[in-house]
Amino acid sequence: MELRQLEAFVAVATELHFGRAARKLHMGQPTVSDLIRRLEREMGAQLMTRTTRRVALTSAGSELLGRAKVILDEVGSACAAVHRLSKGQAGTVRLGITPPVAPVLAPHLATALEKAAPDVNLVARRLWLPDLGRAIADGSVDVAITCGSFDEPPGVVGEVFCGEPLMVALRPEHPLAQRDAVALDDLAGERLGIHSAALFPAWARAHQQALEEAAVSPATVELADTDLFARCWPAQREVDWIMTTASMAAVGLTTPTRPVCPAQVIPYTLQWNPSRAANAAVGRFVHLALTANVPAGWVTLPDHLRHQR
Question: What is the arithmetic mean of pLDDT over 193-217?
Fold first, then answer.
C-alpha cells in the first residue's frame, strides 16, 4: 500500500467524484482510477461502487476512509515535525549559564526565543565556571553563556557578544558618592571588596579583567558576604567600595552606585560546539543570541552581528 493510493482513495471518497478528486490532487483522472483499482486489489475488497452517474462507498470503503484519514494526518504531522526540527523551529536547547547570567541576560534571551520559535524548548542550568567549560567541551550542554572573556578549547566557538556597563558601589559618606560617574583611578588607593573566586569564579574573573583593562591595582579584601549581589558589603568595615552592574545592584543593593568613567563593560561570552550540536534549534538559538536586541542599558560587543563599530 502506498500513500499515493490512500490519498487518491480519500479524495474520491470525500468528493464522491473521480473528476473533482483528480483536480484536487492535480492528477489525471486515469491515474486516480488506477490508484484506486490497485488499492482494492491489495486490500482484497471492493472499496466503492461506480456508475456513470455516481460513486458510493461500500462498507469496506467506509471502514477504510476513517482509518486512512488518521494515517494521512499522522504522516502529515510527522513531516511537519521533521521540517520544524530541520529548520530549527522545534527541539530542545540545553543552555548552561554561570550565576551572573541568570538575573537579566538569560530571561531576556528566553523571551526572545519564545517569540521567534515558540516550539523550541530552552532548558537552562546554572553551572560553576569550571563545570561549564567541561560541559560545553563534552556536549553535556549545547550553548554556554558566562561573563568575562575566555580562550576556547578545541572545537568550541566563542563569541563575546554583549556587555553590561560596569558600576561601582560606594558608602553613602564617600566623597565620590556625589559624582555622576567615578574613575577607577580615583579609587585605586582604597580597599576593593571582591567576591570569592571559589564561590563565583566567572564574576571574580570578569572584575579582574576590568581592573587590568583600567590598569589599576587596588588593595583587595575578600567579601565575607556569600551573596552574589553583595547586599551586605557595607557591614564589612574594611571594604571601601565594590564593583557591580545595574542588574546586580537592582537586587537589593542600597549603597550609592555610579557608572565608571571612562566607560567599561562586563563582557558576556557565548560558547558552543558546532560538531556536537544536538539539533538545528541549537544553531537557531546561537544566531538569535547574536542578532537579538540586547537588554535595556546593555551594549553590543564586536561578535554581536548588530554591533556598531
Answer: 93
